[in-house]
Each structure stands twice: as structure tokens, then as C-alpha cells.
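Please check both lines for our workbook:

___
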Amino acid sequence: MDYFNRDILPIIASRMKQDPVIVVTGARQTGKTTLCEFQLPETLDLPFSYISFDDPDERQRFQKAAVSILETIETPLIILDEVQKIPSIFDPLKLVIDRQRKKKSGSNKTFILTGSSQLLLLKNIRESLAGRVALCHMYPLSLHELTGEGGSPLLTELWRGNMMPGKVTEGFYTLSPDRVRGLVRVRDESLAWGGYPPVWSRKEPADKLNWLKDYRKTYLERDISDIGQVADIDLFATVQKLLCSRTANILSISEVARDVSLAVNTVKRYLNLLNVSFQCFLLPPYFENAGKRLIKSPKLYFPDVGLNRAILGDITINKGASYETWVFSELIKWKQLQPVEPELFFYRTSAGMEIDFLIAGEGQIIPVEVKAHDRATSADGRNIEAFIKDHPGKTNLGIIVYKGSEIAEVRKNIWAIPDWYLFGTKY
């Protein structure tokens, strides 16, 4: 069977060496089951047992004798799918793992747990498996996964060195025209349809859009209903659409509440449900004083541009916001793959100077500006230059990511890099 190679696979394999439980969370249909049931066992060449709690008979069987069942499974890898549907599994699993630790044998088992409902899943993990579990997140397909280039993308090299390696421009101009056209074609598809794997198995645009609309319908009728905190699904859908139309903008909950004639606390609750079910993300502002980050308004992103088309219908958002949203989705997929995961912020001063993203961690910051056009100029790097001057020692490199076909240093240490080269190629 053909699969997209998932960049998180070696991360999971590495964490299995230290932790007896790996939890793979993420939105529905991001590929968690495919990765855990097929790709991971094939990569590790391990015998495994797969149990899905979508099956009501399995839920009933485990509710009666979970400890006995888990201890009698002999394979070294045990995959428990959709575990949020059986909260009672966590205490027996904790008991089995603790017994396994006491034996100190060389035949210890590793448990892979998957679940699409963060709200239900993580609460049980915190209560039962603290200190025994590694958390991994599955996103829709990144551009790097879609291109199939392998290796690490250029952004990883830039982050490791906090500078532009001398061979980058040389490598850029040695790319064959056919390879460039192929990368740009995949980029354009990703910009149009997002990264959900089932979308990429469909060729016709109408089929892609119908799948996305069905996905949204399933999310509203199944996931939100499962959580059970929404009395009026139609009203929730309206709030979802209104919030989605504001992707890549500063969030004002009071404005949204006023527009839909709801209490602020109700909108906050709906937003939290969208957040914990992986439908939207809140990006905090950057301040030297960390306390300010907690009280200032975040930016809102609905990260999958394809799903946003299904949510918004005939409502359109400007190309700049849509492109910035796509870049945000690439950044959050990339950052969790780093040995020490960096933080992501946006930057805005009281004087109105803005930078779309700051990648921050390990004593360094890389500012990233996003331009939804085919050319980048010196003016596009003005704010990054000011930020670099204000943060000496932390920031040696700035990036302008854009849709063009040239790589150039537009100001000192500020580079305009095509998106398909920054995210999609192997460096």
C-alpha cells in the first residue's frame, strides 16, 4: 500500500526508546491510524496488536477485564485506537505499565494510543499516566511530506545555524526546471486544498470539496455532539464560520459575541471547543515581559486552507490572510519535529510595527514576514531589520517567505525565500 511518508514517524520511534506509552493525537482523518497500524510497525519491523475502540464489542470486552487482556497480549507493540471512547482504560493501563516496570525484564511492551478528541483524551492522560507518556501530534500533510523530498527542509538548517549557509543559493540555482515546476505544482495544490490525506486521494476539485464539506458535517454532528457541551449545533456552526472568516487576524471575542448576539462566555466556550478539537489555534504576541503575553490578544488561525473553503462557502477572505494562514500551518507542522521544539509568536509594537511570525527558542529568534505575491523587495524587510537591530545577539537572520521563484538577500541578513524551497525541498 502506498502512503505519504510522515515526518513525525522517526520522532515517535525515538520516543519509544524512553517512554512506555506514546499518545498520538490530532484531528480526525489526519492519518493517525494509518501511521500507527501500518507505517510504524513496518518501519520498526515489530510484531504488533491493533485494537480499535470504535468497535463497541471491544469497549465492552475491555470494560470487563482490561488488565487481564493487556497483560496477555504478547506482541512488543500494542496499538489502542480511539482511546478517548473508553476512559476506563487509563487506570488499568497505568497498573499494567507499573507492573512492567517492576519486572525490569527485556521484553517490555510499548503502547501506542491514538485519539482525535484532545478534550477527553488529555484529561485522562493527566490524571492516570503522568510521567509515563510522550505526546505526539498528527497534523494534516505538510508541504515537505507532500513533495516527498525526504531529509530535512531548508528551514531546519536555517534554524540550526541561525544564518544563511553559503551553499543555499548555489543549490537553489542548480534545481532543474522540471523539479521546480513539480514543487510549485504541489505548493499550489496545497494552497488550494490543504493537507488532509483523503483530499489528496481525490483528483477532481468537486470530489475534494465534497469530502471537505462532509468532514465539516461529521465534525459538527459527531465530534461536537460527543463532547456534549453544545445545545444548538447550528449556532455553533455559525460561530465557527464567523471565527474562520477572521483567520490571521487579532482575535476580539467581544466583537464576535456582538456579531452573533451571544454572551462572551459562550463564545469563549465555543472557541475552546474548536481549539481542543484541533480546528483552530491561537498565536500569542511576543513580549520580552512574558507576563504581557498572557494578557494581550492573540491572533486566530484556522490552519487548513482547504477545510476553510468548506467552512466559509461563498464567503471569501483576502489572499493575504489565506496565504499567511497556510504559512502558519507549515510552521506548526515543522516546529514539533525539532529536537527542542521552538515557540511561535507574532510581533506588534504600540507604534504599529508588525512581523507576522517569530520563531523563538534556545536563545535565538528568527523573524518571518509573509508576502502573498511573486516578488519580494527591500521594503518587505524593513520591519525585520528594525527587529534585528533591537535584539542584538538573539537575531542574526530574517526570512521573507513568498510565492516567487528567486532567492535573494533583500537587506543585510534578510533573505527572501520562495515558500516551496523553504518548506518543501530537501536541503
Notes: The chain has a mean pLDDT of 90. The longest strand covers residues 354-361. Residues 205-227 form the longest helix (23 residues).
